[in-house]
Write a structure and sequence with these properties.
The structure is a homodimer of 414-residue chains. The first copy, chain A, has 414 residues and is of the alpha/beta class. Chain A folds into 3 domains: 165 residues, 3-Layer(aba) Sandwich (Molybdenum Cofactor Biosythetic Enzyme, Chain A); 77 residues, Alpha-Beta Plaits; 158 residues, Alpha-Beta Complex (Maf protein), CATH 3.90.950.20. Chain A is built from 14 helices and 17 strands. Strand 14 of chain A pairs antiparallel with strand 14 of chain B.
Chain lengths: 414, 414
């Protein structure tokens, strides 16, 4: 089935808000085997909404419209649709009731607008006061979803995808296989050249995407025959995995922090950190993973020298002789957080994220790391470039990748 | 001038990659006084690229196309444009030279593709091997920019916007004023109702945007007369600022962490943190701000109880009597990090981010904070909802807002 996604909102066309809902919709539809013909973003302008909707009705089999369904004055989607499709605004008393139940007497009047929908609209979530409805027009289902990401995601998962699955006979999708491989510190061109040498089956669609300091490699295959599609796809995946090995740090939704977490869990090891220039970023990324409390003990963000002394017990003399950004300090940070926390593995990071603080000898981007593990201490020095946030990001990514590679080595040894 | 933005890439229509470049382009063009008619996202499909480009040429005064300019096999924009606009692919020897200069003999052959552009293309960045060119077709400037955000941003700032400014006589923009006000913990409907009561001038466009746990309120005014536009706009801004006062935490690009940083700087105070359930997120956000080393001393991420004992010196007995998630532990964390760091102000956070770890008495979302300052210790308890990352995010946002409000109070007192 071919789909088109229309996102509505002046906040999007003025660039004030990043459109993440269209991305989510595209991802879900693609995974379900549908093809996204195009995604459009337009302002809260009734004429434009009407024009694009009427065009899309002629082009595709399903339409998703997000945004402009709220109760504030700038929400105009329903009015535009009523006019464009000649479906007069109709009062849905059940919506009024829901709103009254939820809010009681508090300012209901201003929410009345939510209860007027284009004639024929079917509520997607009749039990809660959340906007969202389905309109089948000229046999094309048009889903209207809120622009608020959490609500939009909910309705996409719980209503739109199940509806499309239930109507598969009318709106079939292709068998679709896709896998993402994630690389850090390997260039896009290197990956491209090596993929060419692998000579994957020509039906496999290969995509290359630099994402921050990573490269994501995607393999996609879509076909009518389920078994054949899967067989071809799995063969290509094996070729890629066999060739690139540990250069691939993760697949699909895996992140460096989730992969590091898995490795720690499987080896029964604990981790602690001492961060300076990353200011807690590595720690924060590690603790986004559910269950990280089983292997992550914590860390010290020793941003000021006084914290390096008082909290990590690093000697003032060492700091003044070598400076806070030095292999000596990185070593002391890794060893001392090991002693304090008792963790099996510790990582320390000290560097200059900029924009200030650089010198000729130690320019912005100079970073030292110490990795202390069962086999001893390893020190690493880097010379990153970019602005403050880029340097913090690549430092965190590098630190996590060091942990990953070290854990893979430990696994091989044991 | 009316603009249309076309983003190209299968990685976008399959939802694998979030389209941030169109957002950036829209933001820049809008700020420069232009109007964004529509933004489109399509796959690497030559026919679609051609169709959309030809349509856009009839509709708008300037077109931005991003993506598909690279050297990997899936980059097809130039070929599509050559065919669509009957401008045969032409060899640009200067591009070849640049590539050879940069890479020497390393794998040049595969990059030759970059040197073939549609006839009439003008290089945007002739001095470095970065894709990007301008084509003026039927008197409409079409800018082709790389899909890689950092390169796209660079060319947007250094080439596209200066070019449009230099050609203002041909492509004039309106005088455009816009301001964003950011609220935390105030509902969209409340803000809407109060804005209605303020009776701003009807020419002012008002937008309401929930962003995570914040609400952003935008005021926009565009007009031909510069003085009049500015006068009307400033009056509306004063009305809003006067009415909402401290409920507004920041304007435009300000964040809670930058506002807290400004307040600390102006009052000459230092800050340290003791985080548990946020795992370093607050610390990480504070250190994204350039210059934060002048007021941020650091912190302890005492994720495990052992870190609370060994690093923060919290007594085992206190932890076992009250639990790690308790007002008593939050108080001890705030006081002990104050003692260790010597900071003027400290914030502690301990809670249950989930998905595991909740009990009947202390369900997931229970969070305690301690704020220790010159005027003593304040304890706060919260009962948040959402998934792990949502709870971490709202906890961090709440902690930063507590700091902001406390610093505003200190300022009033002193």
């Amino acid at each position: 089935m071919r789909a088109e996604i229309i996102a509505i909102g002046d906040e999007l066309t003025s660039g004030r808000i990043l459109n993440t809902t269209s991305n989510y919709a595209a991802h879900c539809l693609f995974q379900a085997g549908h093809e996204i013909h195009a995604m459009h973003t337009i302002g809260d302008t009734p004429e434009l909404i009407a024009e694009l909707l009427i065009q899309a009705l002629k082009r595709v089999d399903v339409i998703l419209v997000t945004g402009g369904l709220g109760a504030t004055d700038d929400d105009l989607t329903n009015e535009a649709v009523s006019r464009a499709l000649a479906r007069p605004a109709t009062l849905y008393p059940e919506i009024l009731t829901r709103i009254q139940e939820k809010l009681g007497s508090r300012g209901c009047v201003s929410l009345d607008k939510l209860a007027w929908l284009p004639q024929g609209a079917e509520l997607l979530n009749p039990d809660t006061p959340m906007a969202g409805h389905l309109l089948i027009h000229d046999q094309v289902p048009i889903f209207f979803l809120p622009g608020v990401p959490s609500q939009m995601h909910y309705l996409m998962d719980k209503r739109v995808l199940p509806w499309l699955a239930a109507h598969e006979a009318t709106y079939p999708g292709l068998n679709s296989c896709q896998r993402l491989y994630k690389f850090f510190a390997t260039s896009e061109m290197t990956i491209n050249r090596e993929i060419q040498e692998l000579k994957l089956a020509p039906e496999i669609d290969v995509g290359y995407y630099p994402v921050g300091h990573d490269v994501h490699l995607s393999l996609t295959l879509r076909g009518h025959d389920q078994d054949l599609t899967l067989q071809l796809f799995n063969r290509a995946c094996s070729q890629v995995e066999h060739h690139f090995g540990q250069a691939i740090y993760g697949r699909d939704l895996e992140t460096l922090e989730s992969v590091v977490g898995d490795l720690l869990t499987r080896q029964g090891l604990t981790l602690a950190l001492a961060e300076s220039c990353t200011g807690g970023l590595i720690s924060s990324r590690i603790t986004t993973v559910a269950g990280s409390s089983t292997y992550f003990l914590g860390g010290v963000t020793s941003y000021a020298d006084s914290m390096k002394e008082n909290c990590l017990g690093i000697e003032k003399e060492l700091l003044s002789r070598h400076g806070a950004v030095s292999p000596e300090t990185a070593a002391a940070m890794a060893m001392n957080i090991q002693r304090i926390s008792g963790a099996d593995l510790t990582l320390s990071v000290t560097g200059i994220a900029g924009p200030g603080g650089g010198t000729l000898e130690k320019p912005v981007g100079t970073v030292h790391m110490g990795l202390m593990g069962p086999t001893g201490l390893n020190l690493h020095q880097f010379d990153f470039s970019g602005d403050r946030m880029e340097i913090q990001a690549i430092t965190a990514q590098t630190g996590l990748d060091l942990l990953r590679r070290h854990l893979l080595e430990l696994k091989t040894v044991s």
